[in-house]
Structure formats: structure tokens, C-alpha cells
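Project standup — Tuesday

K.O.: blocked on the structure for the chain from last sprint. Re-posting the sequence here as requested.
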Amino acid sequence: MEDRYTVECCDFIHAHGDLVEKVRRELPGEDTLYDLTELFRIFGDSTRVRILYVLFEAEMCVCDIAALLGLTQSAVSHQLRALKNVRLVKSRREGKTVFYSLADDHVKTIIDQGLEHVRE
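H.V.: unblocked you, prediction finished:
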């Protein structure tokens, strides 16, 4: 009797039903994979990565980030909104000024591991 996970592929028959089932149980759900894809998409823009590097060092307002990176405040605000939407940065208001910082230590870890990978 043929296993229900037996699949013909490239002239070979793979009958590793137990392995396939184990991997299937470990796969994250589609919603989780979508969220992960969106997170990594955010890192696909060098301006956003530069902003994250700035925030590694200190909490800053939009005008200071813009001055440091040679960008308009509008451009920085736009990128910060994208970073905030995927919970990589957080903000706090002090009077009329909004300060931005990294949402948590995971953000630096993600960047550091990516940097380590590209430097190998």
C-alpha cells in the first residue's frame, strides 16, 4: 500500500511520510509567514536600515534624524511610519516633539545577524 504522502518527483518516488508530516506540523501558519515576509520587506530599503542604525545609538526626533542622514523631515517621517507599522520602532511624545527609538532588542539582533551574514 502506498503512503498518502508518496510523491513522484524527478523520476524518483519519495515516501517519507513521517518526515513530511513532521515538517508540516512545524510550518508556521500563512498569516505568520505573511507577517514575517512584511518584516523582511522593510529591511529592503537602505534608508530604513540607516534610520534603524541611528536609533541603535539614541532616541531621536524626526528633525535630528533628518539632519543626521541628510534627508527631508517628510522622507524620514514616511520611513518611520513604515518601521512603526511593523513594530520595529516606537514613539513617545514630549510636548510637541515626538521621539523615536527601537521597539526592543530584537531589532538590533536582526540587523546584527544580517550584517554578520553579508560579511561572511
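K.O.: great, moving the ticket to review. The chain has a mean pLDDT of 89. Residues 61 and 99 are 4 Å apart (CA to CA).
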